[in-house]
Each structure stands twice: as C-alpha cells, then as structure tokens.
C-alpha cells in the first residue's frame, strides 16, 4: 500500500514512515520489514549500498600500506648521507678532508661520538667528544 522508499544516509537506510534504522536483508530475502511500523522496504533499495560496503575493507588498507612503504624508503635514503665535510687528518693516508657524522649515544654522560671517513681513501675512524 505504501510506495515510500527508505531514506539513504551514507550506507544506512532509514524507514520512510517512522525513521527507524532498517537492517540489511539476509541472504535470499526480498524485502526488509521495519520493526517499529511494519513498513516493507524492497531489497532492491540495498543493491547499491551492499556494493559500497563490500569495497571498503579492500579499498582502504592498500593505499595506506603503499604510503608507509614509500615513507620508510625515504628515511633509509636520508641515513645513507655522507654527512659534513670537515678538516680532519686521515690517520691512514694523511689526507686533510674527511666526512663527519655526529652520533648522540644513549647515555648523556658519554657525550657524542663523531664518525669520520676519509674523503680520499674512505678509511673510517671515530672521535669521542
Ligand atoms: Zn518504520
Ligand atoms: Zn685517508
């Protein structure tokens, strides 16, 4: 007797006569009956909604995971940097320029350690501050 169709709000359907949230139809069910007023909503009203609900769990995780992967790659690339070129004499070949990288140790008492690598022969050594 009633030709009213349910109100769609997002992925939810609400009864057009009393405003009650309608359940999704079970397998094989052609319509959903409103628990409050007995309004029968045809199952066809849910067709578009079921598709969007199903696509959500698949659509969200993959772009998020891809974002995380690219962010991790960028961080690794920054750590590989040579550091700053400083005037330090290489104990191995006597070259006067070396790449310097300062590393803060866990304990504050130990201060920081400067890692040096010769710009000429790539020999590596460290200086404790
Ligand atoms: Zn109702
Ligand atoms: Zn050297």
Automatic annotation (TrEMBL):
Record InterPro entries: Rpa12/Rpb9/Rpc10/TFS (IPR012164), Zn_ribbon_RPA12_C (IPR034004), Zn_ribbon_RPB9 (IPR001529), Znf_TFIIS (IPR001222)
Entry keyword Nucleotide-binding: no
UniProt record, GO biological process: termination of RNA polymerase I transcription
Subcellular location: Nucleus, Nucleolus
Binding site for Zn(2+) 1: 15, 18, 34, 37
Signal sequence, renumbered to the chain: 1-19
Binding site for Zn(2+) 2: 90, 93, 118, 121
Annotated spans, Disordered: 40-81
Domain TFIIS-type: 86-126
Zinc finger (C4-type): 15-37
A single GO cellular-component term on record: RNA polymerase I complex
SUPFAM superfamilies linked to this entry: Zinc beta-ribbon
Keywords linked to the UniProt accession: DNA-directed RNA polymerase, Metal-binding, Nucleus, Signal, Transcription, Zinc, Zinc-finger
CDD domains with a match to the protein in the record: Zn-ribbon_RPA12 (cd10507)
GO molecular function term, any single one: DNA-directed RNA polymerase activity
Gene3D superfamilies to which the protein is assigned, alphabetical: 2.20.25.10
Role played: DNA-dependent RNA polymerase catalyzes the transcription of DNA into RNA using the four ribonucleoside triphosphates as substrates.
Family, as annotated: Belongs to the archaeal rpoM/eukaryotic RPA12/RPB9/RPC11 RNA polymerase family.
The protein, known as: DNA-directed RNA polymerase subunit
């Amino acid at each position: 007797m009633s030709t009213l169709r349910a109100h769609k709000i997002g992925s939810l359907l609400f009864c057009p006569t009393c405003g009650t949230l309608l359940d999704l139809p079970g397998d094989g069910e052609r319509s959903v009956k409103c628990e409050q007023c007995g309004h029968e909503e045809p199952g066809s009203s849910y067709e578009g909604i079921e598709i969007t609900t199903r696509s959500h769990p698949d659509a969200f995780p993959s772009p998020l995971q891809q974002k995380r992967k690219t962010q991790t790659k960028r961080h690794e690339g920054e750590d590989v940097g040579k550091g700053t070129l400083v005037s330090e004499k290489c104990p191995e070949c006597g070259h006067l320029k070396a790449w310097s990288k300062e590393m803060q140790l866990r304990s504050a008492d130990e201060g920081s350690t400067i890692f040096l690598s010769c710009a000429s022969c790539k020999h590596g050594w460290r200086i404790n501050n």
